[in-house]
Write a structure and sequence with these properties.
This protein is 38% helix and 29% strand. By secondary structure, it is α/β, with parallel strands linked by helices. The protein has a single domain, classed as STAS domain (Transcription Regulator spoIIAA). The strands form 2 sheets. A 5-stranded mixed β-sheet has the order 1-2-4-6-7. A two-stranded parallel ribbon has the order 3-5. Helix 1 packs parallel to helix 2. The radius of gyration is 13 Å and the shape is globular.
Amino acid sequence: MPENSIRYSESEGRKTAMVLVSEELVGLSDKVNLSELVKTEISEGTNDFAFDLSGLRSINSAGIGIIIGCRKAIVANGGSLKLENVNDKITDIFKLTKIDGLFGLGK
């Protein structure tokens, strides 16, 4: 998996990280990369996250588990996670698995 890129913003004392997720989210190496990035960012004071999924072409159950695991860690530390630029294919998968309500899905 190529490296995920990240941008930051701050508003009202809350640091937000916008993470550009790469083309596929399907396996163990993706879990390590994204989970470690979230863990590091939380330890450095990031409160809220937005995952930009504009480049994501495919996701499987492991990828869904990765996103849910990241959300769990973020929420446990008082933060929030939004999914941005979600294409119709990925949105349909989230709706089919009934997890679309866990995230603010943005196009």
